[in-house]
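quick one before i forget lol
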Amino acid sequence: MTGTAGFQALGAFSVQLTNVFREWPFSGRSKRRRGGFTALLFALLVSATAVGAERETLTIGITQYPSTLNPNIDAMAAKSYVLGMAVRRFTVYDSDWTLVCLLCTTLPSIENGLAVPVDLGEGKKGVAITYTIRPEATWGDGVPVTTKDVLFTYEVGRNPLSAVSSAELYRRITRIDTKDDKTFTLHIDKLTFDYAAINDFVLLPAHIERAAFADPAQYRVQTRYATDPTNPGLYNGPYRISEVAIGSHLLLEPNPHWAGPPGHFRRIAVRAIENTAALQANLLSGTIDMVAGELGLSLDEALAFDKAHGSAFQVIYKPGLVYEHIDLNLDRPALADRRVREALILGLDRETLSRSLFAGRQAVADSFLNPLDSGYGAETPRYRYDPTRAASLLDAAGWHAGAGGLRRNAEGQTLSLELMTTAGNRTRELVEQVLQSQWRKIGVDLRIKNEPARVLFGQTVPRRRFDMAMYAWISAPESVPRSTLHSSEIPSEANGFAGQNAPGFKNAEMDRLIDALEIELDRDKRRVLWAEMQRLYATELPSLPLYFRSDSFILPKWLGGVRPTGNQSPTTLWITDWTVQPGAGGGGGGAPR
């Protein structure tokens, strides 16, 4: 007995028992037993309620399938969403945008003595930070999580051939001291303002992954997250992945060795439905119970769905640190010219696009930093729609209008560019059509070639096999964009395609600002650096800013406890807080297929 059916049955059961209670011929000594009968009735009702409070299966729909399940390879929201239920990070940002411990016992700070500034000489400061792993933390095969896993993860992260996405953190850690099986100290060569946030230091199980790391250059394909993804020892969260159907779905079941608060579902199915129209159809048919806000319907689709079907669901809108943009491959000759990049953004009427598609609810972006973020600077340069100025810039760059209105250079080459995004995302496909039409008016030929998310983010973008790629970055509060804008983070074969600076942006001033910002502990001084960085970004345009997204969560009415974070940390990190609400009604509950 589960879900709505359970509560309906409970209601019928309680009515029947109440009728029996009222009609029973209590008399004489029988009346003295009424108290016992009442207690029995209450116990039965509580028991039935407990059964109804669990649900056999929660089925979640998302629009992307992870390119890998290894937590440290490929930065992809789909993977973070799934692993939020199966892997505990040391630190994360919660829904209040506060840094909190998950796998550690106490968040280190200079005030509590667990973070100690260190003088490195020549005016440089480092920091020694001590963390303690939760004593009950255990991998899904019963092996305790220990500092052996910490040392192994550090070994993998430090190796330039391992393809770890956020390699910078591992480069900064000069050594790790272990006090015992649960306590360790990171020695870091920079005292940054966010020194306690080691969100990207995600543990790997040494007892399983060490064999896969025998050849670091092959680790991406040999990791057991790829070759044996249902191995319970890979996961240390409340759930573990028990079934994988690549491109289709993943199934999670409770981790029997999890010592924290239990989840309220016996199975959680995550289904990848890349076409958003099909995603809505599956939701309405009951094949899925909910659509993830992080990877679901765009705002325009959610608004239309809410208008038509909102009475049957919970619909939550959450503005957040989600930056929709177009990365430009700066190694392409045409895009290497800043005048062409400026012409492209001047040729876009982004304000009209936001009004027509999103009812004006998604703010046009001036740079990568959201106005909700404390580092945002209102003085950032803005580009308004100006096709006349765009045409003048293209003329100056040597691209002149020719037959058919398309622009050609002196060699007769057409200004033709290819745009890629995640296939099946209806809103992005609509945006592409708008871009194609508007850029055609200034003489730019746009060709559209979309790919499944696991291909786009697993191969195409990291290997920089694109002219232009449209997608979103999801960041943490006041997150320094080293991985996306520092010249040392350009992915290449030499570094195992690590790093997330896919445009290939090389700018000494940007590097200087990033380096200075990270170690500035004074918030007011950081604001000055943030402002300079945003001005530089908006001037150089390594990417074209589009808008800041609001996530739309479509939930069944019987589901409670889902708190959108609006930042990089997915809601699934708090999966044990998700509950079945008594008497809520509604909802399906399909299994993967």
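fyi The first helix runs from residue 3 to 23.
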